[in-house]
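Worked Example 4.2. Consider the chain below.
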Amino acid sequence: MKTLFIDSSSNKEITVGLYIDSKRILLKKVMDFHKAQIILPMVEEILKKHRLVLQDLDVIEVNPGPGSFTGVRVGVSIANALSYALGIPVNGKRTPVEPLYS
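Applying the procedure from the previous section yields the following structure tokens:
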């Protein structure tokens, strides 16, 4: 199973991960802003590095929060959009994931 993991809940860094069966690969970038412009290139980078494309993914996992208001919205929105486009579940559901704010 190939799982994409997105965590943009921190206001200091973004983590994009790829879980291939039991193997875990993480890519982290330290940043304060422009998360929306960074996440998809990070996804592309990690997939390309492992000779995969979006269509190879089986599941998407996203950290829905709590965390940075904008960061949580960005990560959840990207995960939901990819889930819809690829027809795969996000956080084990076929319905959109909602952010958790506190």
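The two ends are 32 Å apart (CA to CA). The chain has a mean pLDDT of 92. Compare this with Example 4.1 before moving on.
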